[in-house]
Write a structure and sequence with these properties.
The protein is α/β, with parallel strands linked by helices. It folds into four domains: about 130 residues, 3-Layer(aba) Sandwich (Rossmann fold), CATH 3.40.50; about 170 residues, Rossmann fold, CATH 3.40.50.300; about 80 residues, Orthogonal Bundle (Helicase, Ruva Protein, domain 3); about 55 residues, Homeodomain-like (Arc Repressor Mutant, subunit A). The protein contains 19 helices and 18 strands. The chain starts with a strand and ends in a 13-residue tail after the last helix. The C terminus is likely disordered.
């Protein structure tokens, strides 16, 4: 099976023959063209996955051919080649849609790596477009693992309904991305998606944030303000970290979900709202219900359609595709179009436990693009970039006004979360490393909203 159909456009016979031999040995189907006219004839008759295109050709400028390809909607991967490269030419090539720019004399090994990465990115973008067309803007839900395919199907089913959705998952697994996908794929997609992080708003202000307030309702309320529910009417309201919502506020939220009506703080008028609520939490809400810190009736109202997000360690086969997805956006954002991942870099990424999940991988790819002096990223570059993340430090844990109990719980959570990630989620191995009884660690992890391997969920 061919790895792809490639057209090489160059006026030097030796380069054409060398590249045809090297690419053929790697499993590519290769066509050759000695100039612009022949290249355009071949492109008119054949769909190519990639074009290796020289800038200076006897019958025209390769960059002009690139511009015509893009104007015609041709989405093949284009790598430009030149023996007299200039910064202006490289910038123009990137703006026209070239994925990379190679200087002659060519390094065959480097070209093969860059072509492989270009085709991976091309295929990833094609798959994203297909998902976009079929399932409503699922571009950010990257991955072909079984759990991700199941997740996309569940998200699509949830989007078609008007029921409340509760998204569960560790920090950094993409809860907001899923909420956005649900909204975009729903009949409410043309209306607004409002967001509120319940953990980030002081308890005394959260009611105003949700329901709005009248002028003079409290100190500082100098004018009337519409809340999230009013602004989201007809659309979707995403309540992130809903497990941190104060109990008093939970009762008011429940009433709105039941009756579809709100009152602004300090007001007496009642407003009808039509809002679909998508909530998310990294806490064990059933356990919080048992402890009395979260209302069981509110949990039942939110948990009509439950969606569980897998940690990245549970879908390691998606790491290469995710890395390439984030590499593409980081290259564009940081004007480094030549940066590519080598096989050793992908291997190092796949080995890393990623306790911070997809968010950590995204940040790591951006760090690599910004800081690496070389364009071909290897395993050592990845290991150095991972080391720059650093371990949690004692300094900086204290935050004025936050009770010691909360600070202690957050520190405990960081330690247990990192230890579980280091040991691949294995409760027994983590307990041994921390010098704890497995049952004690299991109870501690549940209290902190963390989960280990499913085969150990029956621990006492």
């Amino acid at each position: 099976m061919t790895r792809g159909h490639v057209l090489v456009v160059d006026d030097e016979t030796s380069i054409l023959n060398t590249l045809k031999k090297a690419l053929s040995l790697e499993g590519y189907q290769v066509d050759l063209a000695g100039g612009i006219a022949v290249a355009e004839q071949r492109i008119a008759k054949q769909v190519y996955d990639a074009v290796l295109l020289d800038v200076a050709l006897p019958d025209g400028d390769g960059l002009d051919l690139l511009a015509r390809l893009r104007s015609a909607g041709n989405e093949c991967a284009v790598l430009m080649m030149s023996g007299h490269a200039t910064i202006d030419a490289a910038v123009r090539a990137t703006k026209l849609g070239a994925l990379d720019f190679l200087e002659k004399p060519l390094s065959t090994d480097r070209l093969l790596v860059m072509l492989d990465n270009a085709l991976r990115l091309l295929h990833a973008e094609a798959e994203a477009r297909e998902l976009h067309a079929e399932a409503g803007h699922f571009d950010d839900l990257v991955g072909n693992s079984r759990v991700m395919r199941d997740l996309r199907e569940r998200v699509l089913r949830a989007a078609r309904s008007s029921a409340s959705v509760l998204i569960r998952g560790e920090r950094g697994t993409g809860k907001e991305l899923v909420a956005r996908a649900i909204h975009r794929a729903s009949p409410r997609a043309k209306a607004i998606l409002e967001r509120l992080n319940c953990a980030a708003v002081p308890a005394e202000l959260i009611e105003s944030e949700l329901f709005g307030h009248e002028a003079g309702a409290f100190t500082g309320a100098t004018k009337q303000r519409r809340g999230k529910f009013e602004r989201a009417s007809g659309g979707t309201l995403f309540l992130d970290e809903v497990g941190d919502m104060p109990l008093a506020m939970q009762a008011k939220l429940l009433r709105v979900l039941q009756e579809g009506e709100i009152e602004r703080v300090g007001g007496s008028a009642t407003f009808t709202v039509d809002v679909r609520v998508v909530a998310a939490s990294n806490k064990d809400l059933p356990d919080a219900c048992e402890k009395g810190t979260f209302r069981a009736d509110l949990y039942d109202r939110l948990n009509v359609v439950p969606i569980e997000l897998p940690p990245l360690r549970a879908r390691r086969e998606d790491i290469p595709k995710l890395a390439e997805h984030f590499l593409l956006s980081s290259r564009k954002a940081n004007a480094r179009p030549g940066v590519v991942l080598t096989p050793s870099a992908i291997e190092a990424l796949t080995r890393h436990p990623f306790p911070g999940n997809v968010r950590e991988l995204r940040n790591l790819m951006e760090r690599l693009v910004i800081l690496s002096p070389d364009e071909a990223l290897n395993g050592d570059d990845v290991e150095r970039a991972v080391g720059m993340s650093g371990a949690p430090q004692a300094a900086g844990l204290y935050r004025p006004g936050v009770p010691f109990r909360v600070l202690s719980e957050q520190a405990e959570r960081a330690i247990v979360e990192e230890a579980l990630a280091h040991h691949g989620g294995q409760m027994a191995a983590t307990a041994r490393a921390l010098g704890m009884e497995r049952s004690h660690l299991y109870k501690k992890a549940r209290a902190l909203g963390l989960r280990g391997d499913k085969d150990e969920d029956s621990a006492d």
